[in-house]
Design a protein that fits this description.
The chain has helices at about 5-15, 25-30, 50-65, 115-125, 140-145, 155, 190-195, 230-240, 255-265, 285-300, 315-325, 325-330, 350-365, 390-410, 425-445; strands spanning about 20, 45, 65-70, 85-90, 95-100, 105-110, 125-130, 165-170, 175-180, 205-210, 215, 220-225, 250-255, 275-285, 305-310, 335-340, 365-370, 375-385. The chain is about 35% helix and about 20% strand. The N and C termini lie close together (about 10 Å).
């Protein structure tokens, strides 16, 4: 519990006006973008610098409350949902790009820097930071690091972990450490940077992030291919993956998603086809032309009904923007949209697409599918009314089957959203009990008092799990 003494301690560490306890303020930070999950925290604190963060974490160990670091709240696994005794840490003014080191191709940034702002700043210098989550105009670098976020360019360029060279971190015991650095090669001890990336706020609070940069690709070509069946589109994805050509982007949208996106964005997509692939290749002009020609041929060989190239850079940008609006567009159709990220090897994409369609029919739910098909990361999005208990139960059963199919196909329950609260009941199926026990041992060693974001990814010790998807109704904790 957060005692009055702890509140006074927080005010002394920061300032009275940066410790929020009013009910209306707390409700604002009761959840993230994950539906059907939420709990009002005990307080919200806005630290000014790393020293204050360290002090807050030390106080948490002394007074027995938990600390939940929060970025922009765009997470989709319940990772920023607080517990009732939690103090939520906010970083709204931590939005500075501290240094862009062009000779060493890296940049130090604060955790509150918006991802798209970092893109713009480095691209003006001819440099490139590749991770581009769908929420990149809102989400922040600190949150991206916590969740190991991916994006449309993940097929060629990887996910956030591939772009982090160093971190300044407040550990769960309140110590401030710097991990990694500007050296291109560093094998001094365990790879602690990689341990922290994707730790979902459970092992440290990031106060500075050192990102890797590369030269910006000089040329990009955008291709649209449509298909009469979603399985044919999946087969084209597998064929492109096997062709030894590496697109920067290879996205899929099924008919449900296409219709929603075209209604929302109005960019001239053919919403009568069953599926569409959005493909991009980048690099030097000659190689891009060759790759685009080969991909066009592969799509036609896999029975694409149409294949066309973006008419201009502005048109290509319109298409990318429309794809990024897929979740927003789908969410307009029903009161509740549950977005997941089942991920399989690329060769298994056609099989998973077929299974998702059959699962949706079996459980009588509407599921729109889009996602980063080139790296096997699909986003089945179930559209329901969260106030209808029967409909919620059918959705939960559908995702139960989808994740079982994903694991059977050699995949993972999350490719980029994280486990958080929403998917922790599925983790033992993927890792086995020894794997989960290993995770618990790491957490217990670094955070013996379970101060940082407890209950995310796994419970501290085995106990009866919650409802089938870990999606409890919204809780207004008191």
């Amino acid at each position: 519990m957060l005692t009055e003494r702890a509140i006074v301690g927080l005010q002394e560490l920061t300032a009275r006006d940066r410790v929020l306890t009013a009910r209306e303020d707390l409700l604002t930070y009761a959840g993230d973008a994950t539906p059907l999950l939420g709990a009002r925290p005990a307080a919200v604190v806005v630290p000014r610098d790393a020293g204050e963060v360290a002090g807050i974490v030390r106080l948490a160990n002394e007074e027995g409350f938990s600390v939940v670091p929060r970025g922009a709240g765009t997470g989709l696994s319940g990772g920023a949902v607080p517990s009732a005794d939690a103090v939520v840490l906010l970083f709204p003014t931590w939005n500075r790009i501290l240094e862009i080191d062009e000779p060493n191709r890296c940049a130090w940034v604060e955790p509150g820097v918006v991802t798209a702002d970092l893109h713009q700043a480095v691209e003006e210098l001819g440099l490139f930071y590749a991770p581009d989550p769908g929420s990149m105009k809102v989400c922040t670098i600190g949150g991206n690091v916590a969740e190991n976020a991916g994006g449309l360019r993940g097929l060629k360029y990887g996910v956030t972990k591939d772009w982090i060279r160093g971190l300044e971190v407040v550990l769960p015991t309140g110590e401030l450490v710097q991990l990694g650095g500007k050296a291109l090669k560093d094998v001094a001890g365990y790879d602690l940077v990689s341990l922290m990336v994707g730790s979902e706020g459970t092992l440290g609070v990031f106060t500075r992030v050192l990102v890797r940069l590369i030269p910006k690709p000089p040329t990009t070509r955008t291709i649209l291919a449509t298909f009469a069946t979603v399985e044919a589109a999946g087969a084209a994805v597998a064929a492109i993956a096997a062709s030894k050509i590496l697109p920067s982007t290879l996205e899929i949208l099924d008919r449900t998603t296409l219709r929603a996106v075209e209604s929302f964005a109005g960019v001239g997509l053919d919403d009568e086809v069953e599926a569409m692939l959005l493909i991009e290749v980048d690099g030097r002009a000659e190689a891009v032309d060759d790759d685009a020609h080969s991909i066009t041929g592969t799509c036609r060989a896999e029975r694409a009904t149409t294949v066309r190239h973006a008419a201009s850079p502005d048109h290509a940008d319109e298409l990318r923007t429309a794809r990024r609006a897929a979740f927003t567009a789908l969410a307009r159709l029903r009161p509740t949209a549950i977005l997941e990220d089942a991920t399989v090897p690329p060769s298994a994409v056609p099989e998973l697409l077929g299974r998702i369609r059959a699962i949706a029919e079996r459980h009588d739910v509407t599921i729109g599918v889009f996602g980063h098909a080139g790296d096997g990361n699909l986003h089945p999005t179930c559209l329901i009314d969260g106030r209808d208990a029967a409909e919620v139960a059918r959705a939960e059963a559908a995702f139960e089957d989808i994740f079982s199919a994903t694991i059977t196909l050699g995949g993972t329950i999350t490719g980029e959203h994280g486990v958080g609260l929403a998917k922790k009941r599925f983790l033992p199926r993927q890792l086995g009990q020894p794997g989960v026990r290993f995770l618990r041992q790491i957490k217990a060693a670094l955070d013996p008092n379970h101060v940082l974001n407890p209950g995310k990814i796994f419970d501290p010790a085995p106990r009866c799990e919650g409802p089938p998807l870990g999606h409890p109704r919204f809780v207004d904790a008191t």
